[in-house]
UniProtKB/TrEMBL annotation:
This is Lipase. It comes from the Bacteria. The lineage of its organism: Bacteria, Bacillati, Actinomycetota, Actinomycetes, Pseudonocardiales. Keywords: Hydrolase, Lipid degradation, Lipid metabolism, Signal. Coiled coil: none annotated. The keyword Signal applies. Residues 1-20 form the signal peptide. InterPro entries: AB_hydrolase_fold (IPR029058), Peptidase_S9_cat (IPR001375).
Length: 378
């Protein structure tokens, strides 16, 4: 994997990482409306979503922008603020930064397994397109989903931007969000055959980061069409602020299908099933999981390092070393990207394509640790 470091100037474009799979990638956005469901955040309207589809393609067409112009304008003051990057607004040309995927490139015929991806709480799906595009380059159709009115902003056709409407993190609000997310993912899977011709809906995976990781597990509980899932650094609970412990059904009941936990660090604490300092949910889930399971840890990686911040932050010179470490950790970003992409692909290769791998028996990447239980046989 190649991670190019660009010289950063004001309003600079960034360089997205090269794809690691054998296929070029095509991409398109789709606007979906569920006529059977009211939007939980705006009940007077039907639920509508935006998704991005990435797929094996021929090397034709222009590179897609990382963020659309409307979304870039909307989120720049937020992502540049002291709460996140802490850089002057306008430092990065988000919409001028290209992905490796090409807009509407002709698809490579085949029967490609499908993977749906759910982003972190209030996070745009666009901040995970690097992961999606890389997996698509290895022979998958990957669909990233924006959860409207929970996500901070979603850009719809005609430059319409719908803003997030989550006013708090109370338990009832968090429960509303996870229920909406599960329904969103199930609806998107139902719509996929009309969106892309070359998909194999008998081989379906789901993954997500942070609250998206909770979404992946909870969706599998409610829908057996999903064959395998990954939780990337996400607590599986809707406890919210000041609420009593409220783990998801996936924690209480486990799954009879494969599920991977892929965690990172928060300071001296780690998210794993042997450390309950960040959440009890992984430890509670572990003995209830009946299907294949592994707990993979990225040492010295931070929470937002599992998003496109992993490759973009190192290119933004205005970010202080301390802020950079807090956002993406201290692991070499090239090592982190290679590990993340290889482990996500190896998991779905194993369980959707039935290709053997040794990555879950012994780590081969810097920073990767396989978390073992102290309990015999666990």
């Amino acid at each position: 994997m190649q991670l190019l470091m660009a010289a950063v100037l004001a309003a600079s474009t960034l360089v997205s990482p090269q794809l690691s799979g054998p296929f070029p990638v095509g991409t398109f956005d789709a606007h979906l409306v569920d006529p059977t469901r009211a939007d939980p955040f705006q009940p007077s309207k039907n639920r509508e979503l935006m998704v991005t589809v990435s797929y094996p393609a021929k090397r034709k067409g222009e590179q897609a922008p990382w963020l659309g112009q409307g979304l870039a304008t909307a989120v720049d003051p937020i992502i540049s603020s002291p709460d996140y990057l802490d850089i002057p607004a306008g430092s990065v040309d988000w919409s001028g930064t290209p992905r490796q995927a090409r807009v509407n490139a002709p698809a490579v015929p085949g029967r490609w397994p499908v993977v749906l991806f759910s982003p972190g709480l209030q996070t745009p799906r666009e901040f995970y397109e690097g992961t999606a595009d890389d997996l698509a380059s290895r022979g998958y159709v990957v669909v990233t989903v924006s959860h409207t009115h929970e996500t901070v902003a979603v850009e719809f056709p005609g430059n319409r931007v719908e803003w997030g409407l989550m006013a708090d993190a109370k338990p009832e609000t968090m429960k509303k969000a996870i229920d909406a997310r599960v329904a969103d993912m199930r609806f998107v899977l139902t719509q996929l055959p009309r969106l892309h011709k070359w998909i194999d809906t008998s081989k379906v995976g789901i993954a997500g980061h942070s609250y998206g990781g909770y979404t992946a597990g909870e969706t599998m509980v409610h829908d057996r069409r999903f064959d395998a899932g990954i939780n990337i650094d996400g607590a599986m609970e809707h406890t919210g602020e000041g609420g009593t412990y409220a783990p998801g059904e996936v924690v209480k009941n486990g799954l009879d299908r494969p599920f991977l936990l892929f965690g990172g660090d928060l300071g001296e604490r780690e998210l794993s099933h042997v450390d309950t300092s960040l959440t009890r949910t992984w430890a509670d889930f572990w003995p209830n999981q009946r299907g294949w399971k592994r707990d993979v840890h990225l040492d010295d990686g931070a929470h937002l390092g599992f998003s496109d911040m992993q490759w973009s932050v190192p290119q933004i010179a205005q970010i202080s070393p301390e802020r950079r470490a807090g956002l993406i950790g201290t692991i070499d970003p090239r090592d982190a990207l290679a590990a993340q992409h290889d482990y996500v692909a190896a998991f779905f290769d194993l369980h959707l394509k039935h290709r053997a791998t040794t990555l879950f028996d012994r780590p081969r990447h810097p920073g990767i640790r396989l978390v073992r239980s102290n309990t015999v046989g666990a």
